[in-house]
Design a protein that fits this description.
The protein is built from 8 helices and 7 strands; from the N terminus they run H-E-E-E-H-E-H-H-E-H-E-E-H-H-H. It is of the alpha+beta class. A 7-stranded mixed β-sheet has the order 3-2-1-4-7-6-5, with helices on both faces. The chain starts with 14 loop residues before the first helix and ends in a 13-residue tail after the last helix.
């Protein structure tokens, strides 16, 4: 557990915010469970229900596998800490640059996930990006954005270019950097980042095999992408979400505290 725990005033938090905090803490732990972490770097953020311009993000320095609902910090569009009991150093504001851009521009986005995995970084460095060679990859066929690397995301002017490149998509590869996924719910964002990561893992292994790759026809690629979208519209991602929560149910230290 943490060296220093942040004791939050539950009486000051609405039931809707607490529910979001619990789901977001669960997502942090699931990202750790599936080995998509990068020490204390990268972030996952979620809107605070009923509070315009306020978002929840990890308290800087807390490892993903130990995240609790009370560890999440409320910030504004600029990554500035809203809670007066916490100092500015409790959040990596530079890291929030990416999240703030998307939250401000996309009213349909409730949750933003950004990762630096080995497979995600590897595919981000490949000239052709994600190849349509697996069922997981076809989920993103012609539905995946790309953003060129501009250095560590410290420059606020990059926000406009991030938003432009993402467009209306729910997933984006940050060139020479990593992966990004968004969702209208925390469950949907998990669905997007999980399958994008799996698609990248499959591609890295397929290319390592050294054999000629087989590509489905364009018609089959488009069909599979539409079928994947239909599954989201039927809310099957919530079925998966409720199932994966059991993976962290017995972890030391309840994430719902």
């Amino acid at each position: 557990m943490h060296e220093t725990a942040y004791n939050i005033d539950r009486a000051s938090i609405s039931p809707e915010e607490w529910s979001t905090r619990c789901d977001l803490a669960a997502l942090y732990r699931l990202v750790a469970h599936f080995r998509m972490t990068d020490l204390i770097d990268t972030h996952i953020s979620a809107r605070v229900p009923g509070e315009e311009g306020h978002f929840l993000i990890n308290r800087y320095g807390v490892l993903f596998h130990e995240m609790r609902a009370s560890d999440l910090v409320k910030v504004d569009h600029d990554g500035q800490v809203v809670d007066p009991r916490l100092g500015p150093d409790s959040v990596n504001r530079a890291g929030f640059n990416i999240h703030s851009a998307i939250h401000a521009a996309r009213a349909d986005v409730h949750c933003v996930v950004h990762t630096h995995t080995s497979a995600g970084i590897a595919v981000s460095a490949q000239e052709d990006g994600l190849l349509p060679i697996s069922q997981h990859a076809l989920k993103y066929y012609r539905r995946l954005a790309y953003h060129d690397y501009e250095g560590i995301a410290l420059d606020p002017s990059e926000r406009a270019r991030l938003v432009r490149d993402l467009g209306t998509h729910q997933a984006m590869i940050l060139r020479n950097h990593g992966l990004l996924a968004v969702g209208g719910s925390i469950a949907e964002a998990f669905n997007q980042i999980y399958f994008l990561e799996r698609a990248c893992q499959a591609q890295v292994q397929a290319l390592a095999g050294g054999q000629k790759l087989r590509f489905p026809s364009e018609e089959v690629c488009e069909l599979t992408a539409r079928q994947s979208a239909d599954e989201l519209e039927r809310d099957l991602h919530f079925l998966a979400w409720n199932s994966v929560l059991r993976l962290i149910a017995d972890a030391e230290g309840d994430y719902r505290t």
